Amino acid sequence: MNLRIRKYNWNSAPPQIRGIRQRVFVEEQNVPPELEWDATDQSGEHFLVVVDGNKAAATARLYGIPGATGFIGRMAVLPPYRGKRIGQALLQHLICQGAAHYSQLQLSAQQHAVEFYRRAGFHLCSDQYDDAGIAHFDMRCLAPSVLAEDLAAEPVEKRPGIRKYPMNLGDDSRSWLFEQPRQLVELMHSLAGQARQRLWLYDNSLDFDLYGQPRFCELVSQIARRHRLSDVRLLIEDDKALTQRQHGLVELMRRLPSHIELRLVSDANPPEKEPFLLADRQGVLYRHGVGGSQGFANFSDRGRVKRLEERFLQMWNTSQQSTELRVLSL
Fold this sequence. Notes:
2 domains, 8-stranded mixed sheet, Aminopeptidase, 12 helices, about 325 residues, 7-stranded mixed sheet, alpha+beta
């Protein structure tokens, strides 16, 4: 099947875009017209899939604030074209388009479509809620540029078999290599954003550019507040920089002392040479050297996580409190 995807703004969009949405959402799913047609149409980018010459098959829109969150929505495939991977091709195109402008992508998935979006690299980030009488879940991708690079590395015809649930904690057992700070940050955020109860971090220090940025701190805050048994442990060797500038994780520790704890590696315990982060009992991010931006992330590697857990606990059980933080709290 010959497939092309075209992009439009709302003022130049052909009538087929409106026609597909009218057919799928208003007529098929009984979404009220006043909910379907909203002001976001004017500011969003609209995509139309055409097949076999010029037959309209599917549509979607993408909007948001550049550098922040991009939102994918109004994704619809006409009945004759379902089951032919047209929706998958459109979503992968939106990921690649969005990765160039947004640091994360989010969407509202109907309950029956959750698996479809998981297979594309999105994970759940909300409980179920009702929208226009239909059960929905919010889903997001916190590493859009890494995912887009992975898609671009494979020919389109080979994409369906690349990974079953890319970047889904507990399901994606293939490692993601990184060699740039941007890739490191996105993969770290994706792991932290899916941890349900536990996040353990070991590093030489809490580097501000890596660990002090608002998004990572917000993700850590969500873990700490999610469950009464939430367990966030930060194990470092050098705490001198913590009091030199306002650090988001330090502020979190002040507010949530029972869920977030920081300690220093004891001089009697030889430190690790490679920093790592553990998300629940499945996910790991491992860096090749302190201060480096090379390493790998794996979202389902229980064996490696268990070995690093044991090493972490060896250092944690002989660790000591931070003098700098004690002074700061006085």
